[in-house]
Model the fold of this input.
Amino acid sequence: MNTKNSTVVERFLKYVAFDTQSDGNSDTTPSTHSQWLLAHALKAELEAMGLENISLDEHAYLMATLPANQLPVTGYRLPVVGFIAHLDTSPDMSGANVKPRIVENYDGGDIVLNAAEKVVLSPKLFPELLQYKGEDLIVTDGTTLLGADDKAGIAEIMTAIEYLQQHPEIPHGKVRIAFNPDEEIGCGAHLFDVAQFGCDWAYTMDGGELGELEYENFNAATAIVRIKGLNVHPGYAKDKMRNASLLATQFATAMPQADRPERTTDYEGFFHLTAISGTVEEATLTYIVRDHDAKKFEQRLATLQHLTSEFNKVYPADTVMLHIKQQYRNMREIVEPQKHIIDLAKQAMLEAGITPVVRPIRGGTDGAQLSFKGLPCPNIFAGGVNFHGRYEFVPIQSMEKAVEVIVNIVKGVGGKTQ
Ligand SMILES: [Zn+2]
Done:
C-alpha cells in the first residue's frame, strides 16, 4: 500500500483545528456545542465522498455506509464490520487553538515545544519517544493537547474508506463507520444506536501506540460505605460516643492493603479509596473496585460485604451501610467466544508489518459498553502517545499504518487478504 502523500495527515490537521473538548458537568449529549461543528464538517465530507445512509442524529452520532462492491455468494452473507472513533477531546486540557507542528525525521533528541514557556518533549521523561527515531512526529505548541485522541482515529477511518473507494479491485462487503461524542466523559456509548449501526462487530480506533489491540478491560463497581456515629457532648462522652470519622479510618485500615492502584499492575485488581469525608455523626468512604477476572471481582465485593457485617457485629446493627453500584464489565466475555474478531485484527496488523501488542486495559472503554449492548468491539491503536496533555504527539507513520490495518481488516472480511 502506497502511503506516500497520504491524506491522513491533511485530514488530521484539519480536524484538530476544531475545539471539541467535552464537559463532564454538562447534562446534554453532546456535552458541548463545539462537537456539533466537527460532526457537521465530517457529515459534509462523507457526503462529498458519496457514502450512503449518512445519518447525524440529535445527539451528534454520525454514521455512514461504504456499500459492498462484491456480490455475496448465494446462501452466504458477508459480515458487516464497523469502525468507530470519537469526536471529543479530554476535559483535562484545552483543545482550543491547537497549533500542531510536524517534526520531520525525529533525531532522538529533545523537542522544544514552547521556548517561552520552557515546555520540552524529552526522551529523558518520555523514553518511548526513542522508538520513533527517524519518523515524523506531529507535536503541540506546548499550550494545548493535540487531539490525536481521537482525531487520529477519525482521520484514519476516513482515509481508509477513501482508499477503498479508489481501489474498487479490492472486493469487500458492507462497511459501516460511526463517530460519536463524549467518549472522554464516559458517555460515548450510552446513546449509541447499535441496531441502527447494524454491524456484526466493530473496532474502535482509539488505542495508543502502534500495534495496540485491546479486548480486555476491568469489571468495575463503585462502593459507598456510610457509617453512622453517635454524637454526645465530648465532656460527657465516656462510654457513649461513637465517632463515625474514626470508624471510617478503621474500616479503611481493615481493607486489604496490598490491593491498591499504587501497588498493582497488569491483571491485578484493586480497591481504590477515592474519597473520604466525615463528622462525628456520620462518615462516608467511596471506593472504586476493579478486577479483570469476574470471579475475583465478585470476591472483592464479598470482601466489602464481609467487613461491613463484621463492623455491624461489633457496633450496633446498621452502623455501617454498604451500597454497591455496578459500572461496567470486562468485554472479554463477549469478544473472546468470537475469536475471529481478534484474529482478523491481528492478521491485519501482521500483514501491515506490525507486531500486535495485546494488553489488558486498566480501565474501561466505549467498546466494553458497546460489546454488552450487542456489538462486540475491541480497540485498535490510533497511534497517539501521551494522551490528554501538552506532551501528546502522534507519529505520522503510525497513522499511516492504522489506515493500512483498517483496509486489511476490510479485505479480510471480504475473504481475500491479498
Ligand atoms: Zn479516546
In short: Confidence is low (pLDDT under 50) at residues 1-5.
